Inverse folding.
């Protein structure tokens, strides 16, 4: 993709947002929607600007919970996936309980975490962690297992020890799949942190949402949603950029060199 | 064939049975005995599922026979035999490595610093007509070019033995003929022992000193043909009466076995 192409793509993206906002404005005007149901884009922006210090501060809290939960999930899930692939015994030991924990709706655990950790940041981090964790493990396992058995035969005929096969073959081979898991998990971590904030919190964007909805302050509600989606998108694209840097060789990346 | 001295590869009454959950499993190979001399080019021909790949993998020490012995250079094979190069039907190139780094994988997997072997790899890549492609990635290459890189990877450490399992099976006819000529040239200049699996009778006859025809499963040796075509063989050899006679002979054997009807 050339520089020109990239500018053109950016232009299209901006255009699509402009169109959506224009349409939104039009619908609000044509149907005379009351502000407490659907505020116009202008009203939302006004509320956002007015409450900007609040939104910014609470964003930091929420982002912190998302990041902490996510990083913890990555740091635990990737090595765990590796262990499970490396040893059938560990697989039998770890995999079933892991699947079992996943069958509990994580959101249902949030109240428990509030009991355990109080109203601070930890319940949010815990829910974000739990919800982000599973796709990363699963995709790590799938990626590490997915290598062509003939490749392993070839490596054995080269006398390679298992750790070297792992480092030079299995791990790079698994990266596209791991990144798939990381991307899914990034959006889930946002959901997790927010859920934690809904259940019990006096801080964060989730708390702002609950407050705004209680006061029927719909413009602030919308403004918070916009901020939240910006955070989630920034997070997702940060991981896409990292992916592009790490696996430029993969089919999914070839159209977009760094 | 009677030999007084020890052959390079000795396959002695080898049987391979793959276990199954129930029943007695699959008998892939049975009572297979074959000797291969150093520098010989031997092809294995046989119907699908007769155990050709299994035999190759046992020679490489990657699979253990359930009965019988295999020895290379007089030493029985107990573990993966690493003084060889292998080529499979799929090229098994790594997408994240360039052509030259794919070739140098051979050294890296052995724990040898590849930097001292770059020139050697470069020369080999050039010798198969890929000069200038060293820094390309596999996805930028055609199927034939990719398989050439795989062959370079199997040769770069200059092994005495080359095991090839249907290496050209996925290539188009034209590419296939060219790569056969290239393989013959490499084999003649470097004097490797080659054990070559193919489904193409013409390919086996064209390349080999001996063609081993196997029975349907369980695989046994049905016939061994000495191919007395002069070397080096060019594509014109294929038009010769002698060549056609060999091809016809193998065809008749397959008919007698009920493989071709
Ligand atoms: N790992 C395995 N486990 C169980 N059975 C196997 C295994 N590998 C091969 N077999 C069986 O052994 C027999 C011989 O297989 P093999 O792959 O050696 O045949 P082949 O001659 O190479 O066939 P093809 O020409 O199709 O490649 C087949 O019946 C196959 O089903
Ligand atoms: Mg086979």
């Amino acid at each position: 993709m050339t520089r020109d192409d990239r500018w053109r793509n950016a232009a299209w993206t901006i255009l699509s947002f402009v169109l959506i906002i224009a349409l939104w404005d039009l619908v609000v005007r044509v149907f005379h929607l009351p502000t407490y149901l659907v505020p116009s884009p202008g009203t939302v922006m006004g509320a956002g600007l007015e409450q900007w210090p609040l939104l910014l501060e609470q964003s930091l809290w929420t982002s912190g919970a998302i990041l902490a939960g996510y990083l913890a999930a990555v740091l635990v899930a990737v090595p765990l996936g590796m262990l499970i692939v490396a040893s059938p015994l560990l697989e039998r030991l770890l995999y079933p309980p892991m699947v079992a924990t996943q069958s509990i709706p994580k959101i249902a655990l949030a109240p428990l975490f509030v009991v355990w950790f109080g109203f601070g940041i930890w319940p949010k981090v815990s829910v974000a962690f739990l919800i982000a964790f599973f796709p990363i493990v699963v995709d790590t396992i799938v990626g590490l297992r997915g290598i062509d058995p003939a490749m392993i035969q070839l490596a054995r005929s080269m006398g390679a020890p298992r750790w070297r096969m792992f480092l030079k073959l299995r791990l790079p081979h698994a990266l596209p799949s791991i990144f798939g898991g990381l991307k899914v998990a990034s959006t889930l971590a946002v959901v997790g942190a927010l859920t934690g904030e809904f259940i019990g919190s006096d801080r964060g964007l989730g708390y702002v949402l609950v407050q705004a909805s209680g006061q029927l302050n719909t413009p602030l509600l919308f403004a918070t949603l916009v901020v939240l989606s910006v955070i989630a998108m920034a997070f997702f694209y940060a991981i896409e950029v990292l992916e592009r840097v790490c696996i430029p060789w993969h089919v999914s990346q070839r159209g977009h060199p760094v | 064939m009677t030999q007084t001295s020890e052959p390079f590869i000795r396959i002695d009454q080898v049987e391979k049975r793959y276990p199954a959950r129930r029943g007695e499993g699959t008998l892939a190979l049975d009572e297979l005995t074959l000797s291969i001399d150093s520098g010989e080019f031997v092809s294995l021909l046989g119907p699908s599922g007769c155990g050709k790949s299994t035999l190759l993998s046992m020679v490489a020490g990657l699979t253990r026979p359930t009965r019988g012995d295999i020895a290379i250079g007089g030493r029985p094979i107990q573990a993966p035999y690493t003084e060889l190069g292998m080529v499979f039907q799929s090229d098994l190139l790594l997408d994240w490595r360039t052509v030259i780094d794919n070739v140098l994988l051979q050294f890296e997997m052995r724990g040898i610093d590849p930097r001292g072997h770059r020139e050697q790899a470069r020369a080999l890549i050039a010798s198969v007509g890929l000069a200038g492609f060293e820094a390309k990635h596999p996805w930028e290459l055609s199927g034939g070019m990719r398989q050439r890189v795989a062959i370079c990877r199997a040769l770069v450490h200059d092994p005495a033995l080359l095991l090839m399992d249907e290496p050209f099976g996925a290539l188009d006819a034209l590419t296939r003929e060219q790569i056969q000529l290239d393989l013959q040239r490499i084999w003649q200049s470097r004097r490797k022992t080659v054990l070559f699996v193919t489904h193409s009778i013409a390919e086996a006859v064209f390349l080999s000193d001996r063609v081993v025809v196997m029975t349907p499963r369980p695989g046994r040796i049905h016939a061994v043909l000495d191919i007395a075509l002069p070397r080096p063989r060019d594509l014109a050899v294929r038009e010769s009466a002698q060549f056609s006679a060999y091809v016809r002979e193998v065809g008749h054997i397959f008919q007698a076995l009920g493989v071709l009807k």
